[in-house]
Amino acid sequence: MGSGEEEEFGPSALGTKEHWDAAYERELQDFQESGDVGEIWFGEESIVRLIRWMEKQKMPLDCSVLDVGTGNGALLVELAKSGYTNLTGIDYSPFAIRLCETIIGKEGLSNIKLQVEDFLSLSDELSGFQICIDKGTLDAISLNPDGAAEKRKQYVTSLCKVLKPEGYFVITSCNWTREELISEFQEGFDLLEELPTPKFSFGGKTGNSVTALVFQRKKNEAIPLGHVGLDEQRKD
């Protein structure tokens, strides 16, 4: 990898809790003042894409779903409106959870569980989910200025802890390619499919700006304690 890419994915405030606390505190105030729910990560099409996949897989409406880094809860709201009844959202920012609670209350939804939780330091009660969803959380962790590589390793360990054997993990990322994500989750997970995402053109070349993959946790696979992370993959 060249130096330009190393700078692009270097440490950033976007990888810190302080940044997201401040961002969601502002979004909470904006919602209370104007009803603006704030940004939907990767746009509404990312939510539609996920719900279509769940419907295609004929996932039961009571399947247990964990939204990792739920933010304003836009995904959970749409899942609930689509009839799914066993939904949990976690975020390490208490302001995000307060925003999500406020939005869900205004929508009149009661089948969504929310809690302040750091995915890298989970409480024991979070386990046994059939589907885990990440839209941008691993991306943010990858930008943390304090030991991002170790945090990504802990992410995989936490994912194996909360997800049932043969459960599904759906990740949407703008920082990592299909091949890099496959390598990142090779311990404990098999790639099932790549979901279609918008393409962009630049300089006569066409590519994807966003990658969306569906993994399945391997049956009887031990929780990994460490693996070759994304930093090692990107070394020249």
UniProtKB/TrEMBL annotation:
<comment type="function">
    <text>Protein-lysine methyltransferase that selectively catalyzes the trimethylation of EEF1A at 'Lys-318'.</text>
</comment>
<dbReference type="InterPro" id="IPR025714">
    <property type="entry name" value="Methyltranfer_dom"/>
</dbReference>
<comment type="similarity">
    <text>Belongs to the class I-like SAM-binding methyltransferase superfamily. EFM4 family.</text>
</comment>
<dbReference type="GO" id="GO:0016279">
    <property type="term" value="F:protein-lysine N-methyltransferase activity"/>
</dbReference>
<keyword id="KW-0949">S-adenosyl-L-methionine</keyword>
<dbReference type="GO" id="GO:0032259">
    <property type="term" value="P:methylation"/>
</dbReference>
<dbReference type="GO" id="GO:0005654">
    <property type="term" value="C:nucleoplasm"/>
</dbReference>
<protein>
    <recommendedName>
        <fullName>EEF1A lysine methyltransferase 2</fullName>
        <ecNumber>2.1.1.-</ecNumber>
    </recommendedName>
</protein>
<dbReference type="Pfam" id="PF13847">
    <property type="entry name" value="Methyltransf_31"/>
</dbReference>
<keyword id="KW-0539">Nucleus</keyword>
<keyword id="KW-0808">Transferase</keyword>
<dbReference type="InterPro" id="IPR029063">
    <property type="entry name" value="SAM-dependent_MTases_sf"/>
</dbReference>
<keyword id="KW-0489">Methyltransferase</keyword>
<keyword id="KW-0963">Cytoplasm</keyword>
<feature type="domain" description="Methyltransferase">
    <location>
        <begin position="62"/>
        <end position="196"/>
    </location>
</feature>
<dbReference type="InterPro" id="IPR026635">
    <property type="entry name" value="Efm4/METTL10"/>
</dbReference>
<dbReference type="GO" id="GO:0005829">
    <property type="term" value="C:cytosol"/>
</dbReference>
